[in-house]
Specification:
The chain has about 800 residues and is an alpha/beta fold. Among the domains are: about 210 residues, P-loop containing nucleotide triphosphate hydrolases (Rossmann fold), CATH 3.40.50.300; about 110 residues; about 140 residues. Helices cover about 55% and strands about 10% of the residues. The protein has a 7-stranded mixed β-sheet. It has a 5-stranded antiparallel β-sheet with strand order 3-2-5-6-7, with helices on one face. Strand 14, helix 22 and strand 15 form a beta-alpha-beta unit. Helix 2 packs across helix 19. The two termini are about 45 Å apart.
Amino acid sequence: MCFLLGAEAITATAVGVLLVMDSTHCVIEALDQLASAGLDSEIEDVLLEYLPDRDGLASSEFGWSDVFIESIFARGYRGIADGQNLKLPPGPGLAFVVGLNGAGKSSFAEAAELALTGTTTRWDKAQKDARENWRNIVNPSKTLVRVELRETNGSVAKVERHWEENIELDQSQLSVKDNNGSATDRFNGLAEAVRQYPPLLADRALPKLTDGKLSELFDAFDPLLGLEDLDETQRNINSQVKEIRSATKLATGLKKEVLSLCESSTLPEILDLRSKVNDGSNAGKIYDDFHRQVPAIAVSQPVRQCLGLDPLDLEEVKHRLARIDETVAKVEDESRKGNQTLTRVADLLEQALQLQEDEQLTSCPVCETGQLNQEWRDKTAITLKTHRSLTAALKENQRLLQQELHQLQTLLEQTTKIGFSDDLPELEAASKQAQSLLRSISSRDSNLVDLFSDFELLDMQISETQTAAKRLVENNSEEFKPLLDLLDSWRKAQQKSDELSPTKRSHEKALTWIKSEITRQRSIRLEAINTQITNTWQKFSGSDDLKLDPLELTGSTNRRKVSLTCQTGGSEANARSIFSQGQLHALALSIFLPRATHKGSPFKFLLIDDPVQSFDEWKTDGLASVLEELAQTRQVVVFTHDERLPKAASLLGITASVINITRNEDAALTITKRKSAATQALKEAYIMSKDEQLSPDAKVNIVAVCCRAAIESYAIERYRHKANQQGTPIEEIESCIKQSEKSVWDKISLGLYCEIDRGTAQKVETSHGQEHRNLITTLNKKSHHDPQAAEVHDLYGRTRKTIDKLFTLNSQP
C-alpha cells in the first residue's frame, strides 16, 4: 500500500480502518468465534491449519508514537534542482503550502512519499518512457530526498534516499539516522505503520475513485478493513477446494478419454482393458498390467519368445564341454576294462556267498574240491567289494555324462523351439545353428570342446536376434504409446483424487465458515466507519437533499462489488452515476480521512496534495472546516495551487500558516512564510515602535494604527472561527463583518459574542477590566491623530496583553 495516496491508490485506501482493524485482531476474533462454533473436528482442523497460529501473530506495535514531520528536503528530483528544505510548522495545526503549477510544491509532497516508501503514486505504474523524467533535468546526478520526523518524546529520525547517476528510481539507497546521526533499525516499524495508516493523499488520488470495475473497487476497499489474514485464509482454503474438485474432474475426464481411445480397437487385450476401466478398477494396477502387456500385443509370439531367451554363459558352456569330454573318456576307459563282466562276476560272487551261508556248504558245489571255509568267504567279500566299486564309478560317470548333455541340449533347444517369424529373419539363422549343435552333441563324433567356437557364433546370433526383436517391439509399440500415456495420466490423476477426496467435505465446510466469518467482521467494521464517512461527507456536501448511504462490500471471487449509493429527492441512486466530479472527489476525501486519522496510527500529521480539484465553493468551505477540526490534534499540511482553500480558511476564521513556494527566473525556488493580517499588523507595530528615524508624532500614529488593525483582525478571525463552528452561513458571516467595518467596538463585539452589541465597551470593562477598554479607546484616538501623547512601546505591550486577554490567540509578532 502506498504512503502518499495517489491516483492508483485511492481505491487501495478508500475505506479506512477505524476499529482496531489490524490483521492480528481479526485473526484473534476469528479464532475465538471458531472455538465456540461447535464445528466437526475435521472442519475445525482444516480452519486451524490455514488460520495463522495465535501464538505466532505479529504485534501491532510499530515502535513509533505521536510522529510529526518537521521538514522535507529534496535535491535533483523533478522540479527541485538545488537542495531545498521545506520546513513545516511543528505540532498540531493547519498549514497551506501554496504555489502555482510547476512551482515545485508537489515535488516536495512526492519527496516525502519517496523517502518513506521508495516509490510514488506518480511513478509506480507509469509507463517506462514516462518514468524517465523523475530526475531534475538541470541537476540529475545528485538526486536525494529526505524527511525529518520527530516524536513527542524528542526522538528524531532522518529518513533519506539517494540515487547515484544512472540508477533507476526503485534502486535507491536508504539511510535512517537518529538524533545523534547514528544509523537506526527503526525503519521497518515505520514502514509497517505507513502501510496500515498512510497519512498522505496525492493529487492523482481523487479521480481514481470514479474509474474501474466494481470488482476492482472491492479489491481496493476490502483490505483496508484489516481482514488481510482472513482473506488469505479464504483464498488458501478455496484454492485447496478447487484443487480437490479439479483433481476429481480431471480423473473423470481422463477416464472418459481412455474409454474413447479404446473404442476403435478389436484386440482382446484392449477389450479387456475397456472392461476393467468401466468396472472402476484401480487405475494404477490397470496401467501396470497393460504396460506389461504391450510387448505381447505389439509383436508375434516367436518375437516375444526370442526376447525371453536366456543369454548363453559362454564361460560355463566352455567348462561344460570340457567336463563332457572328460566324462566320456572315463566311461570309455572303464568300458574297455570290462566293467560289464565285473558286474556279472560280482553278482555271481554275491549269490555264492548267500548260498554258502544259507546251506552251510563246506565245499564248492561246482568243482566239489574247493573248500568253502572262512578264508574263502573273506577273499570273496574283498573281491566283491572291488567289483562293486568299479561298477558304481561307471554308473556315476554315465549319469554325469547324461546330466551335462541334457543341460547343454536344453540350452540349445530353447532356441530351436521358437520357430520362425517373417518379421524377424535373424531368428532362423540362430535356430539352425542351435539345431546343428544339438546334432553334433548327440553324435559326439569328436571332442565337444571343439564346438566352443560354434557356441560363440550362436551367442552372437542370439544377441543380434534379440536386438532386432527389441527394435521391432519398440517400433510396433508406438501405436500404443498414446494409450499408455493417457493411462499414465489417468493413473496419476486418480491417485491424486483418491488422496484429496476424503478431505473434500471438510474443506468445503471450512470455506463456507470462513466466508461467513469474513462477512460478519466486514459488516461490523463497515458499520463502524460508515458513520464517520457519512458525517465527513455531510460537511462537504452542505446539502440535506443529497445523503450518502453506507458503503457496502458484497460477494466474493468473481462476484465482488462495492455499493456506492445515495439518497436524492427521496429516491436511491448510484453515487458514481449522479455525482459531479467535485462530489466524487469530496466522497473520496470523506473515505480517506477517517483511516488516516485512525487512533491506531502513530502519525500525528497529514499531507494532502491539491484536494480541491473540481470542488465547488461550498465544498472548499466544508473541506476547510474538516481540516480545522483535524488540526486540533494533528499537524495538517495541504499543498495547493489554488488560493480558494487558504481564502476559505481565512474567511471562516480558521487559524492556518501559509507557506509560499515560487520559482524564480533562474528556476531556483523561494520558500517564504505568509503571515496572517493580524500577525502582520502586530509585527509592524513592533517594528515601527523601534524605528528611530520616525518623528514621535508619526510614530505614535503609525503604531496606534497597526495595533488597532491587529485587534480588529484578531476579532474578525475569532468571529469567523466561532460562527463557522456554530454553523452560521458564510453569507451571514460576511454580512455581519461588513456591518462592523466602521467601528472597532463592533468588530470586537463580533469576536467576543458573534453579534454586534452596542454595549460591548462596557461589557469588556466589566468582564476583563478597565485597562483594556481604555487601551482600545486610546488606540482609536491615536489612529485619528489625537494630540495627547502616550508611550509608544507601552501601546504595543498593552495591545499584546489585550489581544491575549480577549481572544486568547497567543500570537507572536
